[in-house]
Q: What sequence folds into this?
């Protein structure tokens, strides 16, 4: 059968061959190609100039002040080296100089940092509309390309819905409270008469809880193997992606290979199927029938790795700093103890702590909020502007830039938190729910694990304050806050057993 082009050619040719046998279409095509040959580079150059001009217009309108540092690397090294300091850091210093919305250059990208409450709120609330997540490449490489923090749009919504409905649903978590309490009781049973490193205990506790919820595995050899490799993997996430045997990132990549292997072996041989992994794979198989089995398995594995990361080190760091702040403030310890002893008084002998008990202990919840405000497990998050974003009628965040809503600045802002460096859980009672709090993020990506984390910390505090009178800190720990809040000595303490019983 004659093609359309040939048919046209035949028609034209039959009307008269003016070009020595070339059909009209062919001639036009040839001319177009000649023109393209000449004009494509011109168009490309013109488009480039237009884009640069547009950018120049945006930048002149943008009016953002700031500095860019070295070519490519920008101010990344200064940012990373200062972010760990408990004192004024990179953002504080720049904000003082350039205002609370300023430009810089980080992780090879032009960047805007927002340190004012209004802009921070706007950025997290406009998720998917004006901004999308933009975590560093190292996150995707180490947690897997499909992990929840690196995906956007439909894939992310599908994963989030699944997590909220199947992994972190209150009804399911309620059933885990006894397990968490058993773990806490067992851990604390060996604390008397020795120096306890709270960070080690908290990390083990939080990992065991997350592993049970996510992988359905109990403490043991498999658990320890994944835990050790996850620590190395997580450390690598916060360094430049230079894959060499001696870099933290390189070590993280090898740890990822081991985690993937351990998980794959476990998933193939696990006794009980129909767990989170299977349910998730089934969900995406129905939703995206075109995905290959390998892709489905990859997405399932990345869901698990992402949850193992999101769930344990964050909670562990908060536990460590709660023990520190409560121990340093005897009046807080006394108040919190009163609240927990009241719960015990209302219970029958042997009756256990519940999810509802933890939610109802408002002072304890305020202690957790105040701990997160001060130690800022998540100092910021990573976003990218999807269009030129006009801010306050004066400034413009240019399209495609990395945007960091800086939670820590809001948490230390004395207009909201007078005497901001003071640990004062009572401030929430006085101010009600009006205080801006981004300890668990905000907007559509608000942490879905916040209730679980709060419950774990509440149960730890319950047994800590009812079993021990107080705890003494051994030596001086130096805090640092990047990438996670840490204490130089891992918070060594010695507990003093409780003299008085409650009932
Ligand atoms: C004190 C402990 C925790 C803190 C401080 C914390 C903090 C956060 C923050 C700030 C975000 C938002 C990130 C963003 O906007 O880019 C987030 C997201 C997330 N968190 Fe948590 N988290 C904690 C515990 C947990 C736990 C226990 C789990 C589950 C086991 C969990 C699972 C997640 C997940 C899946 C996301 C991603 C949500 C999404 O992208 O839609 N987190 N967390």
A:
């Amino acid at each position: 059968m004659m093609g359309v082009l040939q048919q046209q050619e035949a028609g034209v040719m039959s009307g008269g061959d003016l070009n020595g046998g070339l059909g009209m279409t062919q001639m036009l095509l040839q001319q177009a190609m000649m023109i393209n040959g000449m004009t494509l580079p011109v168009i490309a150059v013109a488009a480039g100039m237009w884009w640069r001009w547009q950018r120049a217009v945006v930048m002149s309108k943008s009016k953002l002040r700031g500095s860019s540092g070295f070519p490519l690397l920008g101010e990344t090294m200064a940012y990373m080296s200062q972010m760990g300091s408990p004192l004024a850091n990179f953002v504080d210093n720049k904000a003082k100089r350039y205002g609370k919305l300023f430009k810089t250059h980080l992780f090879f990208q032009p960047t805007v940092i927002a340190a004012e409450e209004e802009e921070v709120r706007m950025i997290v609330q406009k998720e998917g509309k004006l901004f999308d997540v933009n975590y560093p490449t190292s996150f995707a490489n180490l947690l897997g390309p499909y992990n929840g923090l690196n995906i956007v749009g439909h894939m992310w919504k599908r994963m989030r819905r699944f997590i909220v409905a199947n992994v972190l649903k209150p009804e399911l978590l309620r059933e885990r409270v006894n397990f968490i309490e058993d773990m806490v009781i067992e851990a604390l049973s060996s604390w008397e008469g020795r120096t306890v490193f709270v960070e080690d205990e908290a990390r083990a506790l939080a990992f065991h809880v997350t592993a049970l919820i996510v992988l359905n595995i109990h403490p043991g050899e498999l658990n320890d193997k994944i835990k050790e490799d996850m620590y190395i993997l997580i450390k690598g996430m916060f360094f430049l992606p230079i894959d060499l045997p001696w870099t933290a990132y390189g070590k993280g990549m090898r740890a990822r290979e081991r985690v993937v292997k351990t998980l794959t072996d476990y998933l193939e041989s696990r006794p009980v199927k129909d767990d989170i992994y299977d349910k998730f794979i089934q969900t995406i198989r129905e939703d995206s029938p075109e995905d290959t089995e390998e892709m489905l398995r990859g997405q399932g594995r990345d869901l698990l790795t992402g949850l193992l990361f999101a769930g344990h080190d964050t909670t562990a760091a908060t536990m460590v700093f709660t023990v520190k702040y409560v121990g340093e403030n005897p009046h807080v310890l006394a108040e919190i103890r009163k609240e927990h002893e009241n719960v015990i008084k209302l219970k029958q002998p042997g009756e256990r702590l519940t999810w509802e008990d933890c939610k109802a202990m408002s002072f304890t919840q305020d202690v957790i909020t105040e701990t997160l405000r001060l130690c800022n497990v998540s100092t910021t998050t990573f976003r990218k502007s999807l269009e030129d974003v006009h801010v306050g009628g004066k400034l413009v965040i240019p399209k495609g830039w990395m945007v960091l809503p800086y939670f820590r600045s809001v948490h230390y802002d004395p207009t909201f938190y007078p005497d901001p460096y003071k640990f004062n859980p009572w401030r929430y009672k006085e101010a009600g729910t009006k205080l801006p709090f981004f300890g668990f993020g905000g907007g559509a990506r608000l942490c879905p694990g916040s209730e679980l984390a709060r419950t774990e910390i509440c149960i730890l505090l319950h047994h800590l304050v009812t079993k021990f009178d107080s705890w003494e800190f051994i030596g001086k720990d130096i805090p640092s806050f990047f990438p996670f809040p840490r204490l130089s000595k891992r918070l060594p303490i010695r507990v003093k057993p409780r003299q008085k019983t409650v009932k």
